[in-house]
Q: What sequence folds into this?
């Protein structure tokens, strides 16, 4: 048997290493068969494999090749066994390390966690005699149900006993108004925005590093933007008013009135009622056991008188404001449009929010309101008496109508 030239041997070795495991032994078997007597020993030495591997490749060839590539390189259960399966003492040390560094929920026995990092677990196991790397620790954590998770804001602070009834009522109102001539508006005030050299979550394509203040504490000269939003469920349009004073019921009323005079009157010429979906706090508070939200009711009366239409209000139950449509149909897209940009001015914030769009056709109108709103407004007894309110029989604290004084 004549050996191959060195350059051909190198090519054969490179090709062999590029193959999957079962293809390697078949290739080695073919090369050994071409050489005849002594071929197995020569190819085994050239490719640095055992002669039995070549003999297994020969048996594979005799059994016939598959018609198509196989998804697995080995039979199920094949390959090198993991250390955690071969050395039970590793798992014992793992449990000992976590014994004093595991916390859990007093009400849920399945909810447990550890305050140790993977590297720390590996280091403490090494101190006990189990010299393992982070990959072995990952396997142990996976085996026992430890996975890296982030807390999810899913549990409400409380559950009102009438929560489901109000959700069903709101669903009924939306269905009732959806096929009629009246608008459905979801309203709320978005989280405030700081104008200045403040950090904002997100990344941008830049040529230089962006340096901002290391704390988000407002300074004396810091401008704070309050974005009040209206979302039209029927037209999939958002209307945002930016103000730099205070989030008051008067501000909410001015935003609604501006929408009606500029857009609503033309878009809903046959409207007799405006349905407002809102949460129960901020500039649009709901009544509660402590009393009636007189300021908000008085501002709604001024709105109804100005537009000459009935204002229908449905408040979301406590701790459920995230279900208000404006939260996930408008506000999230405004946040995305401003992501990572350092807001140097109110005009920049407005310009970014105007760019918020979706594939479903969302468009946004953004305006800056210069008016200064004062807090601590009081309502006179005469103004309270002038509110023409008709409360629903179902959950009257959250559902009512304000009739205009014609």
A:
């Amino acid at each position: 048997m004549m050996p191959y030239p060195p350059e051909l041997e190198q090519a054969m070795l490179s090709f062999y290493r590029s193959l999957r495991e079962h293809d390697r032994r078949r290739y080695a078997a073919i090369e050994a068969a071409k050489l005849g007597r002594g071929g197995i020993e020569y190819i085994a030495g050239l490719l640095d494999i055992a002669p039995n591997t070549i003999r297994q490749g020969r048996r594979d060839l005799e059994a016939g090749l598959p018609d198509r590539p196989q998804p697995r390189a080995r039979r199920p259960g094949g390959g090198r066994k993991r250390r955690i399966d071969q050395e039970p003492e590793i798992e014992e040390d793992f449990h000992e390390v976590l014994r004093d560094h595991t916390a859990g929920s007093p009400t849920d026995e399945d909810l447990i966690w550890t305050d140790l990092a993977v590297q720390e677990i590996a280091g403490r196991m090494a101190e006990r005699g189990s010299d393992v790397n982070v990959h072995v620790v990952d396997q142990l954590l996976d085996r026992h149900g430890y996975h890296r998770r982030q807390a999810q804001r899913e549990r409400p602070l409380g559950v009102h006993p009438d929560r489901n009834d109000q959700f069903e009522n709101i669903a009924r109102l939306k269905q009732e108004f959806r096929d009629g001539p009246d608008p459905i508006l979801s309203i709320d005030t978005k989280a405030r925005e700081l104008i200045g050299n403040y950090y904002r979550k997100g990344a941008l394509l830049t040529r230089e590093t962006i340096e901002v203040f290391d704390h988000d504490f407002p300074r004396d000269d810091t401008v704070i933007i309050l974005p009040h939003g209206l979302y039209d469920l029927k037209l999939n349009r958002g209307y945002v008013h930016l103000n730099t004073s205070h989030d008051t019921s008067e501000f909410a009323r001015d935003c609604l009135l501006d929408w009606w005079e500029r857009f609503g009157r033309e878009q809903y010429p046959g409207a007799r009622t405006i349905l407002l979906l809102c949460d129960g706090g901020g500039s649009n508070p709901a009544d509660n056991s402590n009393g009636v939200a007189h300021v908000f009711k008085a501002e709604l009366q001024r709105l109804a008188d100005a537009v000459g239409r009935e204002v229908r209000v449905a408040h979301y139950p406590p701790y459920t404001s995230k279900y208000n449509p404006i939260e996930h149909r408008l506000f999230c897209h405004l946040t995305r449009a401003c992501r990572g940009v350092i807001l140097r001015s109110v005009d920049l914030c407005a310009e970014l929010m105007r760019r918020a769009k979706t594939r479903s056709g969302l468009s946004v109108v953004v305006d800056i309101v210069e008016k200064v709103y004062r807090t601590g407004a009081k309502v006179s007894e005469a103004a309270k008496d002038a509110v023409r309110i008709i409360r629903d029989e179902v959950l009257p604290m959250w559902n009512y109508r304000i009739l205009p004084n014609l």
User: Anything to note?
Assistant: The chain has three domains: 6-63, 83-143, 163-402.
